Amino acid sequence: MTDNTFFPVKPEIAQAAHVDEAAYARMYEQSIADPEGFWAEHGKRIDWIKPYSKVKDVSFEGDVHIRWFYDGTLNVAANCVDRHLATRGDQTAILFEGDDPSVSKAITYKELHEQVCRMANVLKKHGVKKGDRVTIYLPMIPEAAYSMLACARIGAIHSVVFGGFSPDSLKDRIVDCDSHFVITSDEGLRGGKKVPLKANADKAVAGAACVKHMLVVKHTGGTVAWTEGRDLWWHEEAASVSADCPPEEMSAEDPLFILYTSGSTGKPKGVLHTSGGYLVYASITHQLVFDYKDGEIYWCTADVGWVTGHSYILYGPLANGATTLMFEGVPTYPSVSRFWDVVDKHKVNIFYTAPTAIRSLMREGEGPVKKTSRASLRVLGSVGEPINPEAWLWYYNVVGDGRCPIVDTWWQTETGGILITPLVGAIGQKPGSATKPFFGVKPVVVDNDGKELEGETEGNLCIGDSWPGQMRTVFGDHERFVQTYFSTFAGKYFTGDGCRRDADGYYWITGRVDDVINVSGHRMGTAEVESALVAHPKVAEAAVVGYPHDLKGQGIYAYVTLNAGETPTEELRKELVNWVRKEIGPIASPDLIQWAPGLPKTRSGKIMRRILRKIAANEHDALGDTSTLADPTVVSELVDNRMNRA
Ligand code: PRX
């Protein structure tokens, strides 16, 4: 696909949008020339208890620190709930669509207020205080939103763990942030299947002595084990507390949440986001990127276990007084028309999903889409991984009937909100390009030596200055924050992504340049999968790389060396896949496992991943320089027995 396929903004769309091309140019220029002035003005979009007079205090070098609006105070939950009560108390805040298509429920802002207050009071009743960490391990049900907002209301820090993670992964995340309180449900429901969340949480907590209480939401009614004194039913507790809870006055830089994410090395790190800047950024991007207008129905299909769910199911939309749809299920249940059935049922105007979902539905053909109306749709969004132009065009032509602009939004857990994206009314689209930076975002492309590259170019994507939604630190390990993001290219935030900038100044994200892989939009460290594999008693060594996968974007390819005396069998292969599922979670299951009698290493013993990536990609003709290998014969053995021949 060349850069020439261009979808200009239609005049009628530009005219009705919050931001058109001229406004984008003017505002972007101002946001870069005078970030303090720009954000001083836009910070006012949320309610402050004590208004800020200081806007920005940032250093990406030396004593790395990031502070925004830092003498202001606010409460994030009050901004997402209370401030709408007078004007839209009876408007639907959360539209819940169950896994079972016959189940849906509308929760008004008034009802949301009551539920959040009750949850906050339950937390308080059991000793949760400002600054304490609360781990949330819930399915996509309204109680997930109540829990997060209840934490925000009393100043506790939430750490949401995706329901697909194993007990072990959950335990690590509970222990790392020393959480005393866990919120879960009896079971989750996805595609008609039950997920044993309480049982998983029980196993996790057995290894996490810090946990004092587990609050359990009755969702499916399935039987659960019960630990008296520790476990509490949400419905019983809710009835025992008041429906009013005054919001805590928080400093702009008080932590709002921790979200664990994978990096190139070690265990997942706790990305820490704070209150004021994060909310300003989530709110402004939600409004301007999607061109959200009052009264619209907005649906982001992500899970609240990921940052997309935090910023664009919950905080951004609710800060803007939107109706946000929360979907418990999967795109293929009970049929592959489900997404579009839900769009028609709730008259969804703005729809935001991941390329992997688009690709999996595309393979079912146009029929299941075309039998639905989708007339309510106005804007389509994509997030999580590069969208291939073929999927982009299908999304545009088939799902959107050629009517709806697509915003391909590039961002990360660390960035808190969208950084590079089209704005519906301002920036014409090229399929596969995330296009242009949002206000205040200064992309810088550097070569491997850190030299800034100008004009049309390709290299490592860095961001030259801070924006309010940026993460502030790694929970409990500021040094790791500095090392991970600010040491590769001094004075710049390094994203870990590669990109190309074309002659029109459009950015094309080319994927990770580090040892992070992106499987169906889920981010994973190859090191995490490797350590799960070597924990198996029969495995001596393992190396994991990503490889191109039609549906998932990237698949997981594992090279495994067994202990001396072990025989590689099909059965063992299955056992290892299940082992990794159990250790980390189903999203980390290796797609391909190749038995490797030896791994390509340098004489100093470093595994040459470049070679392994090439073999996994079935590009073994282009292995590059192999002269530094300690034993070049291992390579031909691996090539001969490669698992991907596509
Ligand atoms: O490689 C980029 C890819 O996802 C990574 C961030 O993953 P995570 O922190 O889990 O957040 C995902 C949701 C914001 C990035 O480093 N990525 C995300 N969005 C895009 C993308 N790659 C290309 N295009 C995108 N639109």
Automatic annotation (TrEMBL):
Acetylated. Deacetylation by the SIR2-homolog deacetylase activates the enzyme. PROSITE patterns: AMP_BINDING. ATP binds at G384, E385, P386, D408, T409, W410, W411, Q412, T413, D497, R512, R523. It catalyses: acetate + ATP + CoA = acetyl-CoA + AMP + diphosphate. The keyword ATP-binding applies. The modification N6-acetyllysine is found at K606. Residues 82-465 form the AMP-dependent synthetase/ligase domain. CoA binds at R190, G191, G192, K193, T308, S520, R581. Keywords: Acetylation, ATP-binding, Ligase, Magnesium, Metal-binding, Nucleotide-binding. Coiled coil: none annotated. Residues 24-80 form the Acetyl-coenzyme A synthetase N-terminal domain. Residues 528-606 form the AMP-binding enzyme C-terminal domain. The keyword Nucleotide-binding applies. Mg(2+) binds at V534, H536, V539. One of its GO terms (molecular function) is acetate-CoA ligase activity. Belongs to the ATP-dependent AMP-binding enzyme family. HAMAP family: Ac_CoA_synth. This is Acetyl-coenzyme A synthetase. It comes from Azospirillum oleiclasticum.
